[in-house]
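HUMAN: Spend a minute on the protein record below and explain its fold to me.
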Amino acid sequence: MGEPRAPQYDHWYSYDEMTQYVREAADVCGELCRLHSLGRTPEGRDIWMLEVSDQSAGDTDTRPAFLVHANIHAKEVAGTTSSLRLIHDLLSGAPDYVDTQELLRDVVFYVVPRLNPDGAEFALTTGADIRSRTDERIEPNCLVRQDLDGDGAIVDMRVERPDGAMKASEEDARVLVPREPGDREGPFYTVYPEGLIHDWDGGEIRASCGRSHDFNRNWPATWHQEHEQSGAGDFPFSEPEMRALAEFVYAHESIFGVLGFHCGSSAVLMAPSTGSVEDIPRGDRKVFEELGERAAELMGLTLLPTVEYRSADMPPIELKGHSADWGYLHMGLFHFEIEQGNIYNAAGVKTEEFFAAGSDQRHVFLKDAMRYHDEHPEHGMFVDWHEFDHPQLGCVEIGGWKKHWMINPSFEDLREQIAPGSARFIIEYAARRPKLAVSDLDVAALGEGMYRIRAQVTNEGALPTNISERGLVLRSLRPVSVELVLGEGMELLSLGRYREIGHLAPHRRSGELEWFVRAPSGGEVTVRARSQKGGEVERSVALG
């Protein structure tokens, strides 16, 4: 078996480069992975998922499984790189903190490096602003985004107007800051996306006439309509990419853990995304905090409930249709999101500082972002303002940030701590999976061809077979079951070849299970135990 290439940290992966990486991994390490397409996007791109597990160890569908997805938001492309780092570490056997060969015999990792390839490709190739997808509508007075100056980027246009809400910073004229009340010393600017105005009648310009979709408001938990939650979509899982993931997840009940890669002010986020953390049972909060603190330690981040991921001057946030609530409330799983950082973090601004400044004062950190750009001109993060003769507006200035650069961490932070730390956390988390074993199996001969079989089933893992207290109330989660498999010519004398034994806490045994059979000497019986989240195991014993 070969070894996969290490991921690169000097640029963001295009769709073609990402596709080449996962295909090569599947080709070189075929014994440990298979490449699947969850479906195709509206623009015809495959949504790739790499299934990483020891393929020689039997059916992967019955093994405990961990799901990783990234780049649900178009501009947040660093998650693709971190996903590839996880794939590399699993396939190379490089980690010295866990035996990945043993882990891959028991656990399957489903890794979706780019859930939103259409949006990511638009963000990377244009530099324009986009959340997940934008349905453009061409209507009178609507500004239609275009690369007017032919430099390969769609950035901003600043138009000098006496009623403009923005002005150049005194510290750095490239930076636009909000106009203060009573400020009459211009020039002042109105800022629009770079583009042309469709069928303009000279009146008010509508900067955006399209519909913006946010795939991370399209999950079914606490979903609300668009007028209550921007970006929600028409109904839960209405977007093709989200529906493709949902169909896969609900067809694979063995998934016991989920992690999503995002980009924003650096943090590890846990449930809830609506309500209060007090709504989560104390036992589940304890596990959330234990796992989350470990993730934060490995990545140098801070653990926060999603509702507290906000500026100090804002109330607790309420994100309807968000993944954190879906993972916990609907699936009963300890779901985490990793906010890997943004340009402010890359420039040395801590998340705590950023949030403490307040939502209306974040522009004070733009000078730090500009300094970071000046230190790394090779990335081309910012387009200097330059005059352009707009066919409708006359003389304007085109320039500003390529938007995806503002919402990703630095390559250095990603390479040195975030990607390796997140890979280690996912692997350590997966190593805690519930793990069934048939223990203390013995046979006693009772005479006249009759035998008594006794066994116990043990959860040798560090998570319960129900994963969480929340899981216990979900009708979709079935209890651990045990089956006695008889050999040819055997007769069951006692009731109940199938038994349901409830759920098992970590490192706990079931009560003793007992069967009586009549069988010819030399035959063999098998005790088989099944758990949705803990896998399937069996153990055989000879009679006589």
